[in-house]
Structure to design on (232 residues):
């Protein structure tokens, strides 16, 4: 009997990357919720597998050589799962390079910039015009990069891959980022295509009720936990 992948998760764009991938793979997995608004990401037992205090993370009880392995950082998890199951992450070197380019573009650009847009537009106690404009405009630029790429390719790296799974969750809250998908027709076509995939629908829905019970926008204590951390 195959041991399920243990997914340490909270329903956010970063968490969705891995729930979508596991749903696309159709492999057994179990969700272990890490409520980031309550500070559960700082629990000592979680830090053993995710030393950056961030979800998602996984434990694969049937890792390399049949031994358990833990993996943290969403991009590394996607690559690991893609290699293990031989899906959505090509063995052809040229294709794999394209996938990795767009995966790391998301990890280093789209995610952090969209996250900052969320913060300055929605959570900052003072509405700082410079911060709002800086990150809203940068997300707009990144959407433009995607739009140009998708004008010539069905998916970011040609075929559907972990690069698309990494990026879709950060486009879901486009309105919170001050963006209008009507300005980016090729991106909108891609977005609508992915949002109709059953695995994407299910992956994004996991934990929705948990998140709704934790309203970060009105929870000052949760915001303090998330936004005011220093080295421990």
């Amino acid at each position: 009997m195959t041991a399920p992948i243990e997914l340490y998760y909270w329903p956010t764009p970063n968490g969705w990357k891995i729930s979508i991938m596991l749903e696309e793979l159709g492999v057994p997995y179990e969700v272990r919720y890490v409520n980031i608004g309550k500070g559960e990401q700082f629990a000592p037992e979680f830090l053993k597998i995710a030393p950056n205090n961030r979800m998602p993370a996984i434990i694969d009880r049937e890792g390399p050589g049949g031994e358990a392995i833990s993996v943290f950082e969403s991009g590394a998890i996607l690559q690991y799962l893609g290699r293990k199951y031989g899906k959505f992450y090509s063995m052809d070197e040229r294709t794999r390079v394209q996938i990795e380019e767009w995966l790391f573009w998301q990890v280093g650009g789209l995610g952090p910039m969209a996250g900052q847009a969320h913060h300055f537009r929605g959570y900052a106690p003072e509405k700082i015009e410079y911060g709002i404009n800086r990150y809203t405009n940068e997300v707009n630029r990144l959407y433009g990069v995607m739009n140009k790429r998708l004008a010539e390719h069905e998916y970011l790296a040609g075929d559907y891959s972990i690069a698309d799974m990494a990026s879709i969750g950060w486009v879901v809250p486009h309105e919170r980022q001050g963006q209008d998908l009507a300005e980016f027709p090729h991106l909108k076509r891609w977005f609508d295509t992915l949002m109709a995939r059953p695995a994407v629908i299910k992956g994004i829905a996991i934990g929705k009720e948990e998140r709704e019970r934790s309203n970060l926008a009105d929870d000052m204590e949760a915001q303090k936990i998330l936004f005011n951390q220093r080295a421990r």
In short: The chain has ten helices and four strands. Strands lie at 5-9, 29-33, 57-60, 69-72. Residues 10 and 206 are 9 Å apart (CA to CA). The longest helix spans residues 93-123.
